[in-house]
Amino acid sequence: MTTVTVHDLAKRVVEAVAPAELPSFALVAAPYLDHPARAERAFRRSHDDPLGFGLGDAVEMITPVVALVSGSVITALSDGVGEAVKNGAGKVFRKLVKRRAVEAPVQEWSADELARVRATALVRAKALGVEERRAEALADAIVVALLLERDDPR
Amino acid sequence: MSAPRRVDVRAFPSDTTLLLLLLTAVVSLNAVFTAFWLAGFDAGGVTVLGVVWKLEIVLVPGLAGWSLGIWWRLRRSVPVGGTPFTDAARLLDRLVREARLDDPPDVRLGPGLGSRAFVASGRGRPLLLLGPELLGLCTVSDEGRTVFTAVVRHELAHLRAGDVGWAQLGRLLRTSNLPIGFFVLFAVVLDLVHGNRSTGSSALAALVVLGQVLVVELVARAFLRAREHEADLLAARYGVEGLLTAVGDAPGVRPWLRRHPGGAARAAVLADPGRLLVAAPTRLLLGAAAAGSALVTLRGILGPADSTPVVTGAVVGLLVTLFTAFGIWRSTWLGGARPFRSAAALAVGLVLGSYLALFPAVFTFGAGAVPLRPSPLVALVLGAVLLCLWLAAVGRARYRVDPRARRVPGFLAYAVPAAALVGGWLFAVLWAWVVRLTSCADDPCSPTAVARSVGEDFAFGVTPVLVLVVVAVTALGPRVVEPRAAVPAAAAVVVAAVGLFGLWHWAGAGVSTLEIRAVVRDSTADPALDFDCATTAPAGPTEHRTACDVGGGERFVLGPAALTGVDVETAEVGFGGTGSAFVVEVVLTGEGANRWAALTGSAVDQRVAILVDGAVVSAPVVREPLRGTTFEISSGTMDRTSATELATRIAGG
Question: At residue B419, does pLDDT exceed 60?
Fold first, then answer.
């Protein structure tokens, strides 16, 4: 069975929404793909390093958000989108074992399932601080990237 | 809203550097105290080697943390030149060359740093560490490249200003303070377990340790925040747009606790650098608290010598006065000097800090701190108000002739020594007052007697006159003096002069000087000792002197004064042992009783001389060490009237 990985999905999304970030994708996305929970905590935290810059969130790259959203989408797909979105039981289990899926099986997703994927991506992107319009675009790009992975795998 | 004043903020010395020096003094004193204290447990007692070794134990965690930090940063990073961020590497090269640093940094990528960047010390040369998200910004968009450039320039400005060394010192101090607090807490817990200390006392000691750690941490963070503003201003020389975009305009969350000011505060300073000149009262409060703690700790380390209060007050007072002065003067050039607010922060900080000293926390909470009694508190507040009014008047007078701050070095050339002299003298007097009050804490002294003794010792002589002259000349001397500056200055001078005159009148009327000295030679045992009694001159308490008895028949060579009038609590008329003559019964203070015991212990079978106004009224032979708090003065010829007069004069002195 063919699968889609978080890395491939995230890269395809970045290619679509922020192609300028592609050259640095590997280095920027690596912490978010390898240790998503730890990287997300650092991402959300307000940094205050001695002799650092301190702020710097005014202009930021989209790659970290794409990597984290892609991870959530792939985890949801591997758990079964419907269940994950409906009752969150899979999410609770994953939290208990502190593990996220890195790949999900590629299949013929129904329109309903794709809509749930989009909803998952949208909620997650907004939770990560992405503004509404950009979050919508990102969620759309995730769905498109999933379909491309299915129809035109790399 | 008024337009920003065009004043070069860098023309003024940084009060935050003095703040860090105060912090260094506090932690160093704590470290020395802890080292002495730990060395006291050694079998051979306190030795130099023992103290140095214990000092090492206290300081090693800080040094080890520093080395580990460098090792960890190098291990977790790679040179940017070897990464795919080639555009960013080229731009970084250019920015580093442009900064013209004496010691260019080793620029490295920290894969886990995200969008962060900071400078730190490295092996041999400083490190500039950047996260991949920040490096990636360089190629994402023009706006991203602008922000990247602004952030890197800000970091290079830290290097140019030497902030890495300062920050390292701050880190060393903070990490050294933790083991010191640990040792103190450990001692407190041991005392509690062995029943030598109550739960309440232990809780207070723990609070003191926490307070001390908190003050040190807050001071270090206040210093770092100030350096961030300075780095922003240095970086802004190349353009402010990128910086404004990077800092944003969000207000800081709990800004007093963070190492960086909020975005809104940084943007405001970038728009009007003069804001940096305004001294924050919280910073003054922190500095004063550090000074209050240093006063008590230094006094504890120096011991009960007579000169301790003066040395302690003068040294720490000088530092805290300069710190206050820089804050007030910097504010003056923005029209924001508020001397009463500064005085309140100074007085409150000093009192609070004196209760946060670790030294007494090990033994008795609050020992050696400023007593919460009206007389020392009023004196402290009055002193702080007069000092701040004078400092504000000095700054205001200078501002009138140099509103653009173009000749600040010339101003500082006379203002700094003047502030050091006035502040050093003022705090020496105030601290001597506090020490004399607290030295008889078990048997409360009369505030009046203490005030008189302080007035007698400090209000007359060359120094107070010099201080008054300096106060008047610096506040009124500049060519143009506007009434606003002259009024408080003149008021301060008048109040000080009236105060001095009052003390002179009060202390000088009907007061005798009492001294008790060991007899080195006397004409009874050594008839060869002969001199003209009219030629005997007064001598300082630490010097030997000659004296005659009241009748002029016996002559003495005497050692340094072991006790003086300061050590006297009360003096009353009584009857002698036979009831045939009147005597003066002298009651000593707690510290006076200790000195009396030490004197009589070292002079068994020898004579000690009791002098009143330079004449020996009694010179008994000590048969055994005397540990009481009272003794009698009897000359064998005193009647009720002369005894009453003598008692009144001794009690007054």
Answer: yes
What residues of B are in contact with residue A28 (Cβ under 8 Å)?
132-133, 136
Considering only residues 121 to 140 of chain B, which have any Cβ-Cβ distance to chain A shorter than 8 Å?
132-137, 139-140
Count CB neighbours of B109 within 10 A. 24
- What SS3 state is found at B369? coil
Are B167 and A42 an interchain contact pair (Cβ–Cβ within 8 Å)?
no
Task: Say which range, B206-215, B431-440, B635-644, has the weakest mean pLDDT.
Answer: B635-644
User: B65-110 pLDDT, tens per residue?
Assistant: 888 888 998 999 999 988 989 999 999 999 999 999 999 999 999 9
Task: Name which of B499, B416, B414 is nearest B464 in CA terms.
Answer: B499
- Packing angle, helices B374-401 and B462-476, rounded to 10: 40
Radius of gyration of chain B (CA): 31
Length of chain B: 653
Binary contact (B163, A56; C-beta < 8 A) = no
Nearest CA among B271, B276, B319 for reference residue B1: B271
Name the phi and psi angles at A60, rounded to 5. Answer: -140, 165
Query: Are B135 and A24 within 8 A, CB to CB?
Result: yes
**pLDDT tier at A137, thresholds 50, 70, 90:** very high
Both tokens assigned to B597: 């015991």
Q: Rounded to an integer, what distance in angstroms lies between the CA atom of residue B348 and that of residue B72?
A: 42
Hey, of A17, A32, A33, A51, which one would you mutate to test binding to chain B, going by the most B CBs within 10 A of its CB? A51
Alpha-carbon span A36 to A102, nearest angstrom: 10
B101 to chain A nearest CA, in Å? 17
- On whether the CB atoms of residues B327 and B339 are closer than 8 A, the answer is no
> CB neighbours of B138 closer than 8 A, spacing ≥ 6?
B85, B87, B88, B91, B144, B145, B148
* Beta-carbon contacts of residue A48 (< 8 Å; ≥ 6 apart): A54, B258, B259, B260
Alpha-helical (H) ranges within B477-529 are: 483-508
pLDDT digits (tens, 9 = 90+) for A14-23: 999 999 999 9
Q: Measure Cα distances from B345 to B66, B274, B351, B490 in Å.
A: 34, 22, 10, 23
| Length of chain A as a residue count | 154
What part of A 78-107 touches B (C-beta under 8 Å)?
none
0.95 surpassed by complex ipTM:
no
CB B215 within 8 A of CB B290: yes
pLDDT at res. B332: 87
Nearest CA-CA partner of B14 in B429, B462, B327, B341: B327
B470-488 burial: b if 16+ Cβ within 10 Å, else e: bbbebbbebeebeeebeeb
Q: Are strands B127-130 and B106-109 parallel, antiparallel or unpaired?
A: parallel
3-class DSSP assignment, residue A18 = coil
Rounded distance between C-alpha atoms, residue A66 and residue B577, angstroms: 100
Task: Quickly count: other Cβ atoms within 10 Å of residue B305's Cβ.
Answer: 11
Report the alpha-carbon distance of residue B201 to residue B168 in Å, rounded: 35
Q: What is the pLDDT of residues B267-322, one digit of tens each?
A: 888 888 877 777 778 889 999 999 999 998 888 888 777 788 889 999 999 999 99
Dihedral of the alpha carbons of A24, A26, A30, A34, in degrees to the nearest 10: 160
Rounded to whole angstroms, the Cα distance separating B536 from B519 reads 15
Q: Would you call B216 helix, strand, or coil by DSSP? A: helix
B111 in contact with chain A, both atoms CB, cutoff 8 A: yes
